[in-house]
Amino acid sequence: MISFIKRLGEKIKALTWHDKSDLHAKRFWMLFLVVLAVIAFIRPAERTITHHYSRAAYAWFNEEPLYSGSGNGFLYFPQSIFLYTPFLWQPFPENFEDFGEKPFKETLQTHFKLRSAEAFYRIISVGFFAFGIWSLCGALTKPGEDSPFFAVSLMAFPASIAAASNGQFNVLLAATILLSSAAIIRNRWWWATLWLVLGLAAKPHGIIPILLFGVLMPQLWWRLPVGLVVFSLFGFAHWNQAYVIEQWKGAIHQIQTATRPDVEAYDDIAAMFRKFGIDLSDNVWFVIRAAFSLVTLWMAWIYRKHFNIRLAIVLIGAAATAYMMIFNPRTETNSFLILSPFIGSLAALMFRDGRESALSWILVFICIGLGSDNYLYDLTRIWWKPFISCIFFGLLLYWAIKKKSSILTS
Questions:
Q1: Mean pLDDT value of segment 114-132
Q2: Residue 388 and residue 369 in contact, taking contact as beta carbons nearer than 8 Å
Q3: What pLDDT, on a 0 to 100 scale, did the predictor assign at position 342?
Q4: Which of 56, 61, 187, 314 fits as disulfide partner to 74, beta carbons 3.0 to 4.6 Å?
Q5: Where are the beta strands (DSSP E) in 9-91?
Q6: Number of folded domains in the chain?
Q7: Domain assignment of residue 233, given as a range
Q8: CA 124 to CA 140: how far, in whole Å?
Q9: Residue 410 burial by CB count (10 A; 0-12/13-18/19+): exposed, middle or buried?
């Protein structure tokens, strides 16, 4: 069995690590971008949530309310509207569902700008995600080594399909965490600050990598506060400050309400336990989340202290995103693309350095499992992704306790 695993690992390495592997990875992502763009152009209203971003951005400039107050709809800080502003080429129709059901030819001319903007947005956002993977893989590659870009791309791909198709800001958050990790490895602290702050604009739970990296990296102790001040100023970039203050009140209420979802549509650990018939109160889950936030911080501190910088940053990023997926009460089935590149990076490093084992294949299996909504959605809904994420979190905890890892020794 061991010899079979080694032979299989060697074959995978031969397929994904060679002189043209980076080129193959880029072609792979370019093909995916073309497919996404074509689908978004033909069906801009099908399986998408970008209409929430579009309507919020138009509302900001028209001095209309951004937030429903129900915990649904636009769930981001006001600064997030600027991420979608470059794509405000044409508003979505008010009768959104009816528009999606109309024949393509009937709405092609009247909504050509909208279709083009949706296609262009997919290219930019998913291209940004692919660039993040490429950047992290480059930071993990020493002179003379082969980049794991192709291998990590293949492992991250299953979990990215749905979010990329829907146009979710999860794609942008994933990209910013990858890029900030790469920047930290390369000691590019202002770039790291920029990416971390942009992650907060993409999603409120972008605060998790900010806190972890901000606590552990002294070089960020003063840079991040500067970045957050600039971030805050963008939240008041409007000619009517009375309107802005009302929107900030709405944002706080909306985010607070969103942390207590009243529907069984999420994939966090609490939803998994409810699926298994164990329903704990919100207060109990608050204590559990707080306790594991401290565990995650301790794990990250161990990685920073006892592992080489490249591996430490990947492990810290993995810990941050694993905690985010498991303990965020609004984790959606499409959110797990944020975690998959870090798991894929760890598995790829094992294969690249000839350390393939049952553990490396477990990591590959988890990456495939995080894309289960593409092939076993009804069977795996709600419980499966948090379950395998908990397994991965257990591996991270084990490596922290042992203060060593079979991934790399150099």
A1: 96
A2: yes
A3: 97
A4: 56
A5: none
A6: 1
A7: 2-402
A8: 24
A9: exposed
